[in-house]
């Protein structure tokens, strides 16, 4: 690709010495499981998220699973969430034995609409999962109100370092929910060199539960208070992430600059809807996602011009074959279904050059006859 959707090699080249030194320190110590690097990263992420506690785990999917378990969600319970997100959100609900219930999205932000959360609440609702899609926070204060006293998990896998103004105060991704969850999958703004995840909370009892759950239900070796999981964040990944974390703010700012550049370039294209950012939000642009009626044709055109792109997500979760048992039919989440037909994400990574941005813009504009 002349312009890849994401260029991790370009980022690695800028921080290689720091990362290699951090990794080799772990190798030389031969201390690979938990330990100081993980604890230090947990402290740093807690500080960034403005919370009291952070708990590293094996990946972002486990972060959701452990969060649900810590909230005692299980068989017979329902959890309200969005159908327009990565599979892990609803998959974790299913895998703790609960039933996903889907509310529809706000067509502008792609995040769950609070009124659909309120409409989906039942006597069996045990929790709500709000997802911060594409780098901007869901209206977390409105979701919490709509949950009517049920705990809210904030799936912030795509939004670490994003923020939102709530009643004049800045709220960070993961801060306001009962538990916030992060993913360090390599494609994330703060990505490891493999899998990794983290959970954040203000609640000491939830912190204690999460600490047990990630290590076979144990806080003391060989003594198990509950049945937990083996979901520990590797020290190697923590070392990589600690080396990268000081760069996160600058990388996110570069993504915002790239997004603004695209916004200006596409402003006159009537068939293109550029990303809408809620005025209360500061997005980190994990993705730059257009809405285009002729999405598939545009994607084929970009591929022919060696421009990377991707569809996040082509089939909403309520229509996935594995969730057929839930009984949803097409038309029940119309905004999610329409988004799945129209969305296309373009390269927005921080190392994108001006020439590369201009190549992307030229290819899009050519498709529309400009």
Keywords, separated by commas or semicolons:
alpha/beta, Aspartate Aminotransferase, domain 1, 2 domains, 38% helix, 12 helices, Aspartate Aminotransferase, domain 2, 370 residues
Characterize this entry briefly.
The chain has 12 helices and 12 strands. By secondary structure, the chain is of the alpha/beta class. It starts with 7 loop residues before the first helix and ends with a helix.
Report on the architecture of this protein.
This protein has 2 domains: 8-246, Type I PLP-dependent aspartate aminotransferase-like (Major domain) (Aspartate Aminotransferase, domain 2, 3-Layer(aba) Sandwich); 248-367, Alpha-Beta Complex (Aspartate Aminotransferase, domain 1). The chain has 12 helices and 12 strands. The chain has helices at residues 8-29, 36-49, 60-70, 88-95, 114-120, 140-146, 204-213, 235-244, 248-266, 295-304, 334-342, 354-367; strands spanning 53-57, 78-81, 99-102, 125-131, 152-155, 163-166, 169-172, 179-183, 197-201, 281-282, 288-291, 343-346. Strands 1-9-8-5-4-2-3 form a 7-stranded mixed beta sheet, sandwiched between helices. Strands 7-6-10 form a 3-stranded antiparallel beta sheet, with no helix packed on it. It is globular and about 70 Å long. The model has no long low-confidence stretch (mean pLDDT 97).
């Amino acid at each position: 690709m002349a312009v890849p959707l994401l260029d991790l090699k370009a980022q690695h080249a800028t921080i290689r010495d720091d990362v290699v030194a951090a990794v080799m320190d772990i190798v030389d110590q031969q201390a690979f499981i938990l330990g100081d690097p993980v604890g230090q990263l947990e402290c740093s992420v807690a500080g960034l998220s403005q919370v009291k506690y952070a708990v590293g785990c094996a990946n972002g999917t486990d972060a959701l699973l452990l969060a649900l378990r810590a909230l005692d969600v299980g068989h017979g319970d329902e959890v309200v969430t969005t159908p327009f997100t990565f599979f892990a959100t609803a998959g974790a609900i299913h895998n703790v034995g609960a039933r996903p219930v889907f509310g529809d999205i706000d067509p502008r932000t792609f995040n769950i609409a609070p009124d659909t959360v309120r409409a989906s609440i039942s006597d069996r609702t045990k929790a709500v999962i709000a997802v911060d899609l594409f780098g901007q926070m869901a209206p977390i204060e409105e979701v919490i109100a709509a949950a009517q006293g049920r705990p809210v998990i904030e799936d912030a896998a795509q939004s670490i370092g994003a923020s939102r103004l709530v009643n004049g105060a800045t709220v960070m991704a993961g801060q306001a929910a009962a538990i916030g969850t992060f993913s360090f999958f390599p494609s994330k703004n703060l990505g490891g060199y493999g899998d990794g995840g983290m959970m954040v909370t203000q609640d000491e009892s939830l912190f204690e539960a999460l600490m047990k759950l990630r290590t076979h239900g144990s806080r003391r070796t060989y003594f198990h208070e509950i049945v937990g999981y083996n979901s520990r964040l590797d020290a190697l990944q923590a070392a990589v992430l600690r080396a990268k974390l000081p760069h996160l703010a600058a990388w996110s700012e570069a993504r915002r600059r790239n997004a603004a550049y695209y916004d200006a370039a596409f402003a006159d294209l009537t068939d293109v809807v550029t990303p809408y950012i809620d005025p209360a939000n500061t997005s980190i642009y994990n993705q730059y996602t257009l809405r285009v009626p002729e999405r598939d044709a545009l994607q084929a055109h970009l591929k022919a011009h060696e421009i990377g792109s991707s569809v996040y997500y082509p089939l909403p979760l309520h229509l996935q074959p594995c969730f057929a048992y839930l009984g949803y039919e097409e038309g029940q989440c119309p905004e999610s279904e329409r988004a799945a037909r129209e969305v296309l994400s373009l390269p927005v990574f921080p190392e994108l050059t001006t020439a590369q941005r201009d190549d992307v813009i030229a290819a899009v504009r050519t498709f529309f006859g400009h």
